[in-house]
């Protein structure tokens, strides 16, 4: 059976993962509205991955004979100005999620729940990738500035991203 304190932080993490999906969907809608359909695709794919992340936590709690406690998901902020500002928000949000995952790892270790401590390593690695992906796009957008041709090519590149289901099995 899962440790109760660890179960609580995992349930909170589920909410953060589903909120992340909402946030990425709001960003996708913004990109659709301004005609950057490749950026919209990229953020839609990201939203689906965030749902996967939440469901992996969901299934893990169940597998450990715990109780899943779903709570209200806040509406994301929709105040977006341009692609660079959106990706700066993405980067800041991913750093927040990384900090939260690190706290889950720390709590599971403090509570001697080594199964969860081992399990959460997948999320730690995933967050390194999430932050790096956001930084990569930020660097490109800063390099391009207001150059429309480069933005067009980056939009095409972002449109090629395809969803690949995330899964984890102990």
CATH topology: Ferritin
What's the order of the H and E elements? Answer: HHHHH
Question: Could you tell me the strand content as a percent range?
Answer: under 5%
Number of helices: 5
Low-confidence stretches: none
Task: Report how far the terminal alpha carbons are from each other.
Answer: 15 Å
Average pLDDT confidence is 95
By CATH, the architecture is named Up-down Bundle
Number of domains: 1
Number of strands: 0
Main β-sheet description: none
The assigned structural class equals mainly alpha
Percent of residues in helices comes to over 70%
Question: Any idea of the CATH class?
Answer: Mainly Alpha
Classified in CATH, the superfamily is Ferritin, core subunit, four-helix bundle
Gross morphology is elongated
Q: Could you explain the architecture of this structure?
A:
- The protein is an all-alpha fold.
- The chain has a single domain (4-159), classed as Ferritin, core subunit, four-helix bundle (Ferritin, Up-down Bundle).
- The protein is built from 5 helices and no strands.
- The chain has helices at residues 4-33, 37-63, 83-110, 114-144, 148-159.
- The longest helix has 31 residues, at 114-144.
- The chain is elongated.
- The two termini are 15 Å apart.
- The model has no long low-confidence stretch (mean pLDDT 95).
